[in-house]
Design goal:
Chain lengths: 191, 161
């Protein structure tokens, strides 16, 4: 039920409340950036992944405010609700995609997002240098974005890709694990 | 109506923006207050520095908010409180940003106004300004001309009239 409502809300916000840009512009800009990072870091893909994650983190911390300003969503009660909101409202609102939430762990603390489509990776082929296919997570910026955004709502998470169609896998799958809910910070003592 | 002051606190309990308009009246009893401040055993309210003021405000809303949650459940929140002299309005975003406005007692609920400041001023001019830092450690605070102008205009246009 909640998931239907999230889907409806997402659709409505996407239609009425969001400025759109050309998808190819996004794909090309992102692609260029990754390519530049690859050459800056001498094709050490581990470091490229790390950089992408870091950039995403900084984006996420800002994006979450825009997300709340535009969507008017309230705080989620549990991780399942959070997952639905990320997929059906968050991704919908900013990218017009709704990744599928699945593979819940038994303790309800981690789940997967399966991306059927990925605007960042349209028309992308990983370089054929024998390493990129095994080491580069092309869309790793998403992991950082989710990590940054969720941190702002007091959830510390760990996010990483476990499969990517660009690498020849059957699906693109990101694994997200809730580490802990963060406590309210207290003001420092005066004396 | 009169707006006395406006504060924003971030999730690290840091006051990242404050602005004062008309000075808040301190209780004006029938007796004239004396300079030594201890007339009739009642300490005279001292003028606080702007920083102390912000700390006090934060302490108040922090405790009040926690108390409200204890009594009314996790989703409960306080909206405003009123004293004989002023009314304090409160809005907290899901990202733990806290917006506080202190006005005279006759003012209606300003929750929507505070939300509006968040959506159309704070997010637009502070969050989306790529050169403005995301966190404001050490009390540097929001230093963004567009935002300040916006707040000024907004308050003058919609509240002070």
């Amino acid at each position: 039920m909640a998931s239907n409502k999230a889907a409806r809300d997402g659709e409505k916000i996407w239609k009425t409340n969001v400025d759109k840009v050309n998808a190819e512009l996004v794909t090309l800009t992102y692609g260029t950036m990754v390519a530049q990072l690859c050459s800056d870091f001498n094709h050490k893909y581990g470091e490229v992944n790390q950089q992408l994650d870091k950039m995403g983190y900084n984006i996420g911390m800002r994006l979450i405010e825009d997300f709340f300003a535009k969507s008017g969503v309230q705080r989620c009660g549990n991780l399942r609700e959070t997952a639905e909101t990320i997929s059906k409202i968050g991704f919908k609102m900013f990218l017009n995609i709704t990744p599928t939430v699945s593979n819940w762990s038994a303790d309800n603390k981690s789940f997967s997002l399966i991306f059927d489509e990925n605007p960042l990776a349209d028309c992308v082929e990983l370089p054929n240098d024998g390493r990129a296919q095994d080491e580069l997570w092309f869309s790793n910026i998403f992991c950082g974005i989710l990590r940054g955004a969720l941190e702002m709502v007091q959830m510390q998470v760990e996010a990483h890709y476990v499969a990517d169609v660009l690498r020849g896998d059957e699906t693109t799958e990101m694994r997200i694990t809730l580490l802990r809910y963060m406590e309210d910070e207290m003001p420092p003592d005066d004396e | 109506m009169v707006v006395y002051s406006f504060y924003i606190f971030d999730r690290h309990a840091e006051c990242i923006y404050k602005k004062k308009w008309a000075p808040r009246p301190t209780s004006t009893g029938s007796k004239t207050q004396q300079a030594n401040g201890l007339a009739d055993g009642a300490p005279q309210p001292k003028a606080l520095s702007a920083e102390d003021d912000a700390k006090l405000v934060f302490g108040t809303i922090f405790s009040l908010r926690n108390m409200v949650r204890k009594l009314g459940g996790e989703d409960d929140r306080f909206i405003s409180y009123r004293t004989g002299q002023y009314k304090l309005h409160y809005y907290e975003t899901p990202t733990s940003l806290k917006f506080v406005m202190v006005t005279d007692t006759k003012t209606n609920n300003l929750r929507i106004v505070l939300h509006q400041i968040y959506v159309s001023l704070y997010v637009e001019f502070v969050v989306k300004n790529p050169l403005s830092p995301i966190e404001h450690p050490g009390g540097i605070g929001v230093n963004c001309e567009m935002f300040e102008l916006g707040v000024e205009q907004f308050v003058n246009a919609s509240l002070m009239s």
